[in-house]
Amino acid sequence: MKQHHFFAWIGLVTLVVLNGQAADAGLTPGIEQLYRLDQLATFRDSVKVASVSSYDRTGGNNDGFGGQYSFVRKESGGLVLADLKGPGVIYRIWTPTPTDDMMEFYFDGEAEPRIRVKFRELFMGTHPTFERPLVGYGAGGFYSYVPLPYARSCKVFLRAERMQFYQINYATYPETMGIETFSVQPTSEQREHIEKAKTLFGSTGKDISAYVVPEGGEVETIASKVTLRAGQAATLANLDRPGRIVGLRIGPAEALAGKKRDIVLRAYWDNDPTPAIVSPAGDFFGYAWGEPAMKSLLAGTADGVSYCYFPMPFDRSARIELYAEPGLDRTVSVEAQVLFVPIARRQNEGKFYALWRRENPTTLGKPFTFIETAGRGHIVGCVQQSQAFETGGTYYFEGDDQTTIDGERVIHGTGSEDFYNGGWYDVPGRWETQRSFVLSGCLGYKKHLGRTGGYRIMLGDAYAYRESLLQTIEHAPTNNDLLNDYCGLTYLYSQDRPTCDFALPPADQRAVLDPERIIFATWWNVPVYSFSLRNATLTKEGIQHEGREVRFLSMRARDTATFGPHSISFTCELPAAGTYRISLDVVKGPEQGKVQLFLDEAPVGPELDLFSEERHPAKDQYIGTLALEQGPNNLMFKITGRNEKSQGLGFDLTNIICERQSREVVAAQSNRRAVEPEVMQRVYEQAKTPFKYGVVLKGQDGRKLDCPSVFRHGSKWYMVYIVFDGDGYETAIADSDDLLTWRPLGTILPFRHEGWDAIQAAGYVALQDTMWGGSYELGTYDGKYWMSYIGGALKGYETDPLAVGIAWTNDPTAPAPWQRLGEPVLSRDQDDVRPWESLTQYKSNILHDRDRTLGYPFVMFYNGKAKGSPERIGMAVSNDMRHWHRYGTDPVIDNQTGISGDPQVVRMDDVWVMFYFGAFWRPKAFDTFACSHDLVHWTRWDGPDLVAPSEPYDETYAHKPWLVKHDGVVYHFYCAVGNQGRVIALATSKDLRAKATR
C-alpha cells in the first residue's frame, strides 16, 4: 500500500478481532451500542424512540427558564422528570442547568433508588456509574451517554422544588429483547463493555476503523491522488463486488475548504444512478462557512486530514468520487484513502446516506427541515450551519428541534444549541466559540456575523423509524417568524432510498454568503483592545426608552489622558476585506462628549457631538469610512472635546456597525422567452378598467397627491400615497372600508431637519402578496414591515438627484413615522450605477420572491434616468432588504423615449405582470403593462391602455398605477392631473359609480 504524507498518523488495519462476537449475532440494547460501530448500520428493534424534556407546552419559548414544564409531575419531596415503562433504555441525559440537588433513579417499581447522585456530579465523571468520557460537559451543556436499561420501568426523580432545562432520550423495546435492568455492580462482561466504550470515546480524531470492521473482516486500503478539473469527477474508489466502506480519509483538509462549496462528495451504491451521498465535500466532514470546524468521533477533521468512519455497506458495487463544479477557479489536488472490507451488506442493515439541504431564506411559519422521508431506517447524525440576515445576534437559535417518527411527534427539544448538547449561546464560557466533543459540539459562534452551528452524532440514541421520519428545527423562538439562511446535513441509514429529493442546489446557490452589514455589540462582548491609560472608566449601563431597555458600554473620562485625547479602541473581526462605512448606535445625553474615528492619529470622518439635554438612543450615526482587512481590525475612537453645554466627557456606545461598500452588478439570466400573444391578451382582459369611478382622494390646502399603493391589513384597506406641498415629497396614509371612500390618517415619512432625504421622502409599500386577486396583505421580514422610498435633500418637484431608501415599522397602519436606514440603498454615487440611471432613481416596487427565481428572495423594480435620456425601469436584488445589488447591466423596460416608470409587479396565474405608466412616447401619460416568465425578460403590451386621459380630472395625465382585484372587481388607482389638480382617482372593471357618495 502506498502511504502518502497526509496519512502518516494512520496505521494499516489488516484483521480486526476487537468485537469479540459474531457480527450477525445482534446486540442487546445498552452499553455495546456505544462501541460496536460495526453494528451501527443494523436496524433497531425498538418499538418507540422518544424523549422527555422541559419544552414549553404552549408553543412559547419558556423551555425551562421558569420551570413550569420541567417535570412530568410533582411528588412528595421533589419532581418526577421521567416515568418510563419498559423494557427500555435511557440513552442520553442533558441539561445546561445542573444543581447540587439529589437525582434518584428508581427501577422496576422499587421503593429505593438504585442510583442516587447529585445532579451535577452525574456529568463530572466522579460517580462510579457515570464515568468519563461517557459523560462530560462543555459549550454550556452537561451530558451523559451512559445507557440505563430497565426491564419494567424507570422513574427519574429530582429532590428539589425547581428544575429548569433538561432532556432525557430513551427507546422502548419488545419483551423478547431480554433487556436486563441496570445493576450498580456490573459483571466482568459488562465491565469489559464499559472499558471498550470508554476507550473508543477517548479516540476522537484517531483511526477508529478497527471498531467499524465486522469480526474477521480484512481491510483493503484504496489509496489515490487526484487533481480536480473544473466540470469533471475524480474517482476515489470504484468497487464492483459486495462489501462495505469502513473509513474515508481525504487530505489536505484545506483543499476542501472555501466559501464557494464548489467541490462535491458523491457516493453511489449498487449502480444506483442517484448518489447516496451528495454534499459539498467540506460540509460532509463538518466544515462550517467554508472552514474545518468539526472533530467528532465518527467524522471531522484532525491533523490536516478529513475523516469519516460511518460504516457504509452495499450489495454489489460502490463508487466514491469528488466532483468539481464548472466554475472551479483554483488547482485542487488531494490524497485519499478508502478503507474497504469485502463483507456484503446484511439483510438487517441499511445503506448509508448523507443529505445536504439549504433553505435561504427559511420559510415563515415553517421550521427548517433536515429530512422528511418514508421507509425504515435511523438517523445517526445532524450538522447545522445558521446565518442571520440581521447580524449582531443569533436569536433564531432559541428554536427547538422536533422529531416526528411514524406519524407521531416523539421528540421536542428546548433550544437549538441544546440539541447539540450545548447551552446558553452568546454567554462567555459557554456556547460562544468553536468546541468539539466526542458526539457533539459547536461549529463556531460569531455574534457580530449572526452565525452559529452545531453537530450531533447518534449511537445508542439514534432516531429509528419504521414507516416515516420528519426531522426539523425551528428558526425563531416562536412561530418560525425570523428569516435566516440555514444549511443542514443529515447522516442516516435506510432500507430503501429515502423518498426525499437529494439534488443539490446550483453552485451559485450553495456558496457561503458573508453579511455586508456587520453589527458589533459593544454593550455585551466586543473585545476592547485598549482605552485611556488613566482618568477613564468603563462600565456596563442601561436606560429605559419607550418601554424597552437600551444597554451600552459607558466610558467616562476626566481631565486628560496620557497620550492626548481620551480614546477607546475595539477589535472588530470582518469576514472579508473591503471599504466599510462605519456608524455607531449611541446614547446621547447631558454628559456626553464629541467623538471622532481616527486612523494613524488622523481623523477619518465627522466629529459626532453626542450632547443632548435628555438621554436617548441615537442609531446609525455615521462616523467615517475605512479600508479594512479580513480578520481582526482595531477601530479607535477619540473623545475630542465636548459641547459647551455638556457636563462631561462621556461616550455611551451600544453598537459599532461596519457596512461593506464594495458593490457589483449581478449578471442577468440570458434565457430569454417572450410571453405569448394570447397570454398578453388574457392579461389585458383581466386587468382592463374601462369605468372611471372618479376622484377618491384630494390634497388639503392645494397640496398635490401622487403615487398610490394600496394594501389590506385586518378588515381594512389602506393607501400609502405622496403629498407635495411645494417644497418636496412626504408620504401619508389613508384607510377605507370599501376601496371607494378614503379617510386620511396622517404622515408616515415626514420631512427631516437634515440628511440625504430631508426634503424628499416618497414611499411605496413592499413585500405585498403578489397574487392577483390574493390577500394584498403586506408580508414581514425580520419581524418588520418594509417600504422603499425615493429621497432627496433639495427642494422642488422631484429635484435631482434622488435615490432609493428603505424604511420599516412594526405597524404599517399607524400614522406615525417609519424608521429609516441612514443612507440610500441605491444612488447615483455608487460605483455600480449603470449608465441609464446615472442621474437619478425614482419609484420602486419590492416583491418577496419565495421561489428565488433569480437566486435572491427580494427583487426591486425601479425607474431611473441619465441626463438628457428617457426614464427606464431596471432591477436590483437583495438577501436582507438592507443591501441591494443591481441586477443586469440593461433596463428591463425601455421604450426608447419619454418615461417608463412606477412599476407594480403581480403574479397572474403562471405569468408575472408589471403594471407601469408611460408618457410622451405616445401622447400624454397613461397606464399599461408588460409580462414575463422569469422576472427578467419582459414582453411589452402594445394594445389599448389600461387607463388613459378621458375625463376633466385626468385630461392631462392618467398615470402611476396600482391595481387590486377584490371580490371579482379590478380597482385601478392612479394619479390624475386635470381640472382638480393632482389627485388620486379610481377606474374599475365594473361600473361602480352608482355607489359614489355625492
Principal-axes shape call:
globular
* Major sheet description: 11 strands, mixed
CATH fold type of one domain: Tachylectin-2, Chain A
Query: What's the CATH C level of one domain?
Result: Mainly Beta
Over all CA atoms, what is the radius of gyration? 32 Å
Low-confidence stretches: 1-5, 8-25
Output mean pLDDT: 94
CATH homologous superfamily of one domain?
Glycosyl hydrolase domain, family 43
Span of the ends, CA to CA? 96 Å
Structural category is mainly beta
Assign the CATH architecture of one domain: 5 Propeller
Strand content: 35-45%
Helix content: under 10%
Tell how many strands the DSSP assignment holds.
64
Number of helices: 4
Summarize the structure.
Helix content is 3%, strand content 44%. It has 998 residues and is mainly beta.
Description:
- With 998 residues, this protein is mainly beta.
- Among the domains are: 31-201, Protein of unknown function DUF2961 (Jelly Rolls); 518-660, Galactose-binding domain-like (Jelly Rolls, Sandwich); 677-989, Tachylectin-2, Chain A (5 Propeller), CATH 2.115.10.20.
- A hairpin with a 3-residue loop joins strand 27 (435-436) and strand 28 (440-446).
Question: What is the strand and helix layout of this fold?
Answer:
Blueprint: E1 48-53, E2 73-75, E3 78-85, E4 88-95, E5 102-107, E6 115-118, E7 135-138, E8 141-144, E9 148-150, E10 153-158, E11 167-172, H1 188-201, E12 220-228, E13 233-239, E14 243-251, E15 263-269, E16 277-280, H2 281-284, E17 299-302, E18 305-308, E19 312-314, E20 318-324, E21 332-341, E22 351-359, E23 368-374, E24 377-388, E25 401-405, E26 408-412, H3 416-419, E27 435-436, E28 440-446, E29 451-457, E30 463-465, E31 468-473, E32 484-494, E33 517-521, E34 528-531, E35 536-545, E36 548-557, E37 566-574, E38 578-588, E39 594-599, E40 602-603, E41 608-609, E42 616-628, E43 631-641, E44 649-660, H4 677-687, E45 691-697, E46 704-713, E47 716-724, E48 729-736, E49 743-749, E50 760-765, E51 785-792, E52 803-809, E53 819-820, E54 840-848, E55 858-865, E56 872-878, E57 884-887, E58 899-908, E59 911-919, E60 925-932, E61 938-940, E62 957-966, E63 969-978, E64 981-988
Parallel strand pairs: 16-22
Antiparallel strand pairs: 1-11, 2-3, 3-10, 4-8, 4-9, 4-11, 5-6, 5-10, 7-8, 12-21, 13-20, 14-18, 14-19, 14-21, 15-16, 15-20, 17-18, 22-32, 23-31, 24-29, 24-30, 24-32, 25-26, 25-31, 27-28, 28-29, 33-44, 34-37, 35-36, 36-44, 37-43, 38-42, 38-44, 39-40, 39-41, 39-43, 45-64, 46-47, 47-48, 48-49, ...
